[in-house]
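Holo model, protoporphyrin IX containing FE. Inputs:
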Amino acid sequence: MSTTTAADNRRKAPRGERVADWADGRLGIYSLAKTNMRKIFPDHWSFMLGEVALYSFIIIILTGVYLTLFFVPSMSEVEYHGSYVPMHGIRMSEAYASTLDISFDVRGGLLIRQIHHWAALVFLAAMFVHMMRVFFTGAFRKPREVNWLFGFLLFVLGMFTGFTGYSLPDDLLSGTGVRFMEGAILSVPVVGTYLSMFLFGGEFPGHDVIPRFFSIHVLLLPGIMLGLLVAHLILVFYHKHTQFPGAGKTNKNVVGMPLLPVYMAKAGGFFFLVFGVIAALSALFTINPIWALGPYRADQVSTGAQPDWYMGFSEGLIRAMPGWEVVLPGGYTLALGVFVPLMVFPLVLAAIAVYPFIESWVTGDKREHHILDRPRNHPVRTGIGAAWISWYLVMLIGGGNDLFAIHFHLSINAVTWFVRIAFFVVPVLVFIATKRICLGLQRRDRDKVLHGRESGIIKRLPHGEFVEVHEPLSQEQLHTLTQHEQRKPLEAGPEVDENGVKRKVPRVQKLRAKLSRGFYGENTQIPKATPEEFKEISSGHGHH
Amino acid sequence: MKKLSARRRHPLAALVVLLFALAATGGLYAAFAPADKAEAEPVAQSLAIEEGKKLYAVGCASCHGTGGQGTTDGPSLVGVGSAAVDFQVGTGRMPLQQPGAQAPDKPNVYTQAEIDQLAAYIASLGPGPVTPTEEQYSPEGADIANGGELFRTNCAQCHNFTGQGGALTEGKYAPDLEDVDPKHIYEAMQTGPQNMPSFPDQVLPEQEKQDIIAYLDTVNSEDSETPGGFALGGFGPVTEGLFAWTFGLGAMIVVAIWVAARTAKAKKS
Ligand code: HEM
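Output:
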């Protein structure tokens, strides 16, 4: 379709069309575009959280490129003589000096630095809430489990990109963070010392850590993330986006706006809004004022030294953990006070990562799902998610225990003990409370379906009784409130086989049945209104 | 001339010269020294001690004992020096209002003259660090950068990078140093109040104390410059994280809801 002699004879096609034709003849983009550009995207604000992450990631990359033009990833010592007077004559690494230069002598440098850092905080926060959106709506279910893992990897890599990034200026705060990491590595039995020597190219801090972190931060991790991100988005396209239940929405369709032009226009506008918010934050509020912190020196340390928020839970783990130490025969020390947190750290993350697989195993649900769950209709999952968040928050509080102590006039020991106990207790309480709230909401849904919405209009009946008029719901609303299925728990199978012989039920299966009862058994759902009940009540036998 | 040059070598010449020199210095001293003060000081001093003793008996003796020897409610003040009193009373820490983890600073109830009298009385109980003079603690012309380096080495572990304060164990804390009077900073270093170690001149000479004061004045006072915009209290990543979540992500969500609500109406086709 690239050349047509007939067209040549009459008139030249417009230039744009010719270019498109040229490209299509070689790249075959037309058919690709045809199918994808009309792809439908449902509209819901919570579906835009992933976009916030995407746009802040783009902003981070753009500003990061600018910063690499001026940043010197070197630990060789120089004496500072730039514009920031309170640092005059101080010996510091070139990395720190160049960050001071970016802040005070490079045009727009400070603003770009602040955009880069604020965007990083927002990026991880956006990923976090995006992940929670996907979690609570059950969007991770088949066929999206792999995409859930891609997303999870992006979150973890984002954490480490952030960590390596804020370590680069080699200031006293981030240097303390690197020291913290060194301590954690050293606590690994047997290989800890070797690992540390390998990473730092000798004794801490050495001269290699900043150049190495630099390559990891600007090349390795962003490269992997970019690849994962593209894969993530391709999968979103391929699976098509999920949608909330509603009239006309089925497991087989997507109701919304086409990608082009509507969604693209919105997305483009949204990018600039995100950029605008981050730029405004960065123009108005200081972040990581490294000039006030001083260059890193191994003999200096400051109180109130915390990592960025996404690393805060690891700080909390360390601060809450008692400083246990075991000396093994032969004089080998096990620094449990550091090693245990180091082991719990990946567990916290893994707990959320593997959840989709556990849920599908426990519930035996292997079907595809494209309609999202309303969180209340899955009290156990919602409870688990809320418990995990509360757990994470408890650890964040632990990470800032000193600041909480000072600002709320508490004893830091009390805060630490609170965190230690809360680490075990709060998730359980939150789970129970969340589950109950979900059940309460389910009850209300059932009520609404059967008796309609409370209208706020009070009517006096002939015999004097006052009643509130309930308005019946529309068909659409009824559909939304009743479309969900209520599953039965899996059974481990009968105790005896058809011949009456006691069957051997494998342990795993028993466990699975038990967990499944936990998910869908008693007290996990309020039976939704059945059509019969509905008919009976709406046919006038109801109490009003 | 000849006579003088001959006597110059006289055995007693050296003695005579010495006598002359002594007389000259003595005379010079008498001429230049503030004569009235030399006489009046002991008198004023003892008056101040008298007054201080009275103030002490009213405000402090209940805890520190009538002779400053200490009780179960307060430590001995023998040998703490006038600097400690000037600091403790000047920052309002003393008189202590109620026992607690740490004596907090609060509005000071004594005039400077009364504080000086209290200080004089306590100083008379035993020698200790002396209240510094203005030229000792004035940060004028001190080396800010060096002060920063010293502060990070000696003070940041309790007071934070820029003196924002920090928590110690069991509810004790190193306070925020914003806008603390230079004199009180100097005295804090001299006397090491409560859980703070003292930094006497052998450890941290006068010049270095001035550098630290100058540094604090630059980075942690009401008119410190914050080139990056509002400093969010200067507490670092914890406040930054809270801020990114509430205002950063909060704004994003508001914007997302706004954008999502502005949907194109689907055309019937
Ligand atoms: C670099 C970070 C990330 C970016 C840029 C990103 C971007 C996106 C975008 C734009 C979408 C479609 C719109 C939406 O549903 O919000 C999406 C969907 C999805 N994301 Fe992410 N995401 C990231 C991280 C994550 C994380 C941390 C997870 C979970 C561990 C995750 C899991 C998913 C899943 C399962 C979907 C499909 C949701 C559905 O179809 O309903 N993503 N992502």
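Chain B touches chain A through 64 residues (CB under 8 Å). Chain B is about 55% helix and 0% strand.
Archived with the compound record.
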